[in-house]
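Final report, Chapter 2: Outcomes

The project's central promise was a pipeline that accepts a single protein chain and returns its three-dimensional structure in a standardized token representation, suitable for archiving and comparison. That pipeline is now operational. To close this chapter, we reproduce one record exactly as it appears in the project archive, with the input sequence first and the structure output second.
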Amino acid sequence: MSAKSILVVHGPNLNMLGTREPAHYGTVTLVDIDTTLANMAKHDGHQLESFQSNSEADIVSKIQSLMVNRVDYIIINPAAFTHTSIAIRDAISAVNIPFIEVHLSNVYAREQFRHHSYFSDIATGVISGLGAEGYFAAYRYITKP
């Protein structure tokens, strides 16, 4: 199996995981998720970078940077931008890198406005409602032999 490069993008408020609405998002922190992913990648011989921002512009710029600094795959939890950001969708479309959309909570068991995603129709897959395990499942899918 050849080594893969993966960018993990975390959207707004995910820096507050562990304390923010644990009934929806659990008690695992973003540091816990990123550390586990980094350890998985190191163990498997893959390269993985994690990036979190509360700014739509920063996320767009990070994704646009992949035009030069390509990766094989993106794992993205756009968080609230899932339902609002055509700009992030356009950036992902422009770089033409496959991605998996991840959500910690089951967005379909929540408010109606969370049922629409600007990303799902162009994603390789969508994982929703598995908590932190969704990120790890996305990683395992990307790195399967």
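Archive annotation: The chain is about 35% helix and 20% strand.
This record, like all others produced under the grant, will remain available to the consortium after the project formally closes.
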